Amino acid sequence: MSTALSSPFQLAVCAEMVFLDLPFVERVKRIHQAGFAVEIWDWTQKDIDALAATGARFTSMTGYISGDLLDDDGIARLLETAEVSIEIARRLNCPSLNLHGTGLDGQGLPLKPKNHVTGAMWIKAYKTLSEIAKLGERHQQVFLLENLNTQVDHPGTPFASAQDTLTLISAVDSPWLKMNLDLYHAQIGEGNLIELIRQSAPYIGEVQVADVPGREEPGSGEINYPAIARALYKTGYRGVVGMEAWASGDSNSAIARFLDSFGGDFI
């Protein structure tokens, strides 16, 4: 694949989900050599020096080790581990740190599931995210709050929907706290993706993509990703679009299909 990408967006590929036959650092090198930026999840399981030595451009990584938005111990842990994550992000020159409404286990399930979110929980989450924004401002580091789906992948996750994350991010209203608008999760949970993009546009810090069903690369399922790309472009968004998707077959082919959807031909 050519390393010269033609796209108005900053295209990134999640190294956790492609080239699975390779050691992790080799996956990063392969993505970088193909001309894409790289995204990673849990940095505590990675050789940070080896990743930095690849020369890859990292666009996002998990921004905490544990904690949540709702109880005092979890909040303290979230803020503490977010600050530690900032130091790792600096070593990788990674501009964005990703958060969820609660800590997730190795299967993506919430460590403290909540099937009902009360008004008091909303207030607590708002205050916690306000502190995260202040932490980001102090360190000049952007945090992203990602929406998830509770129907298939993350049952019991509080503040999971894109509308929930939009409500919280717009209430905090800080340039240091943005949405990670994951369109795979939003399609499962809410649909109406183009209108969601228009509503969320002022608060989007990153867009992540995979197709439905199966969470595989764009073009493998029901989402019209060239139309999504046009809608994003029309809002003025020019930031990161990250493929956080499994390859339906060969990883190189999956990345090529991603580029087909978000290259410049849709304009």
In what order do the strands lie side by side in the largest sheet?
A: 1-2-3-4-5-6-7-8
Distinct helical segment count: 9
- Poorly predicted regions are none
Average pLDDT level: 95
- Separation, N- and C-terminal Cα atoms: 22 Å
Topology as H/E string? Answer: EHEHEHEHEHEHHEHEH
Structural class: alpha/beta
Please characterize this protein's 3D structure.
With 267 residues, the protein is α/β, with parallel strands linked by helices. The chain has 9 helices and 8 strands.
Can you tag this structure with a few keywords?
8 strands, single chain, globular, 8-stranded parallel β-barrel, alpha/beta, 267 residues
Describe, in short, the structure shown.
With 267 residues, this protein is of the alpha/beta class. The protein has helices at residues 24-33, 48-53, 72-92, 119-139, 162-172, 183-189, 193-200, 225-235, 251-262; strands at residues 10-14, 37-39, 58-62, 96-99, 142-146, 177-182, 204-209, 240-243. It has nine helices and eight strands.
